[in-house]
Structure formats: C-alpha cells, structure tokens
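ugh ok fine here u go
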Amino acid sequence: MKHDEIAYTDKSSVVNRGPSEPDLSARVDEVFSDSLLAAHIGMWEFDAANEEIKCSAQCKENFGRKASDELNFRQWVDAIDPDDRDGLHSALFNAVNNAGDLELECRVNWPDGSTHCILLRGGKVGPQTLAGISAELTSHKHAQEAARESEDRFRINFEQAAVGMAHVGLDGRFLRINQKFCDILGFTREEMIGRDFRVITHPDDLEKNLRDVDNLRDGMIDRFFTEKRYVRKDGRIVWVNLTSSLARSRDGRPEYFISVAEDITTRKQMEQALVESHAQLEAQVEERTAALRSLSARLLQMQDEERRRIAPDHGRRLRVFPAPRARRVSASAGHRSIVAQPAHPREECPASVPRIKRRYNNRRRLGPWLGPRTGRGHVLPLG
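structure:
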C-alpha cells in the first residue's frame, strides 16, 4: 500500500481527492484488518439465544487454536480458566440483558498446557447478539509483571539500604527519601519530603555543594563525591560521604538527582581526636625538650660554679714542695700530704753511696702510698 493512498482527514475530503467510495471502503477494511492482525486482536460475535459464537482466525489463535480449528461456545468457555469463568458469565449476562459494555481480563488455558491472558471487550449489537474483540495480553502482562518486580526490587533496595538514599528535584527539594537518610538527619519522612537540601546543609559546605550540583546538572560531570556536613533536626552536626548522580529522561532531559549518603560522623570524630592527641603529644615533647635543655644548662652552670669554688681550696690543701730536698710533711685544713721527690738528675752522679741507698729505701717504703707523679714529684694524700 502506498503512503499517498491514505488520507488522514474527513470523508468529504477523501471522496473529493481519492478514488471511488467502494474502493476506499475496501482499502479501509484492508488496513483495519491488517492493523488488527498486527496487534493480535481477533473478532467474535456471540448469539445468546442459541449460545453460538463465531470467531475470526486471530480470535482462535488467542485461544490457542489454529485458524482451521472449530471453536464453539462450549469450547470457548471451557478454555477460560476456572477461576475466571464466573466473571465471564456475569459479564455476558449483564451485556445481553442490561445492554452494558463487556470488558473482562481473563486467563486462557491453551491445549499445550500454557496459560495466556486475554482481554475480551464488546457490546450489544442486536436483541440477543454481542460483538467484540479479543486481544492477547500475555506479552503485555509479562512486561507489566517484569516492571512490577523491578519496581519491587528497587523499593526494597531503596528502603532497606544500609546507607541513606534520596531523589532530589532540580529545584533542590527532596522528592523521595528512605528511612536511613531520615535517621541520619533526625527528621521524619513527612518532614523531609519537599524540604530544600540547602536549608539543612552546613553553611561552610554549601558553596562547594552548589558548585558540584551545577556542574552535574550542566553535564560537565557524570557524578560527584564529597564529604559534607548536615545540620540535624536537634542542631547537632553530622558528617556524610555523599555521592550524587543525575537521572535523565529518554530524550536526555535532566529529571532529578539521585543521592547516596553514608554516615561518617564517628570516623570524623576519631580523626579529630587523633589530630588533637598528636598535637598534645607534640606540645608535651616540646615542653619536655625545653625542660631538658634548661636542666642541662643549669647543670653545666652548677658544675662550672663548683669547679670555680673548689679550685682555690684545692690549691690551699694540696701543696707540692720543690726538689731536691723536699721531705717535709705539710698539713692544712685537716688534710695531710706527703711529698716524695727524687734527687735532681744533676745531683745523682756525684752523690755518695750512703745517700743513694737512703733515698732508695725511702722510695721503697713510700712507694705503695705515692700518688701520681707531677712535674715536681709524687703526691700522697693521707687523710
């Protein structure tokens, strides 16, 4: 069929511009028939007085029969699922006797054992006659069921998630929020729906948050991650790790933001406590270091003062007598020293033997008590 043979206008314009009316009617019938086949829609006519039904080929297919198979009213009713037959009888009775419209979704058991869903729709066209269509709804029902299951899974995941989840409109107001997010913020679900996220965002984090939202809405980024603070209903500050993305329609238009928030307040408190503890330890180390430096300087000062104090007294108590004939015993301040001085080298050569022996014996007798040698002799402390 050519496109220019179909005119989407009223009958007068079609008659004036198109072919003759019988040809147009036949063409319309052909198009109508093709459309019904493409949509899996069959035709039926029911004679209530004789309980006879006539079905088109597509109607028979909707009941699991071939176009050449016979399908009488009893077979037509028996094909309906037993749980739906009472509804069928009531719909037929009401349409015949009360001139009401017939519309019923029912399950049909096919000869191969499979179950399909069809829509029966019709109305009264004669005193005891009904006419209508049967549309196969199995694929549609399956799609609906899949969509329902997907929605159920999403709702379960959304509501039972261990993190806060929310849908936020482009104007910044909450459209949908789960209970976990409400618990984080301290509000009820009813209080959160319609609330602007700017109102509960900490003022110090608002500017960066709005900049990220603008970049996301303008398509500059696909999502953003940030750590931000919210102000709870009770006024306390709560930290969250926020992830946001943008939901778009099929034609790419932004619809709403999807936000996921994880409560990290405990982690932030631990980090802050660690920073404060580190700063405290650093201060203690500095304080101890300064104290040790001060103590070290004081010890050095005291040592120097003690050295200066002892030096004059030591000079008075320890006295070294000059060689070669220093045999005198010196005593001062309760301390006695014996100084033994060997003979001067220049005097050893001409000395007599008795003198040498006398010095040698003195040396042996005093040897164990002699102190270290000095430039002028041995010093022996006796007290």
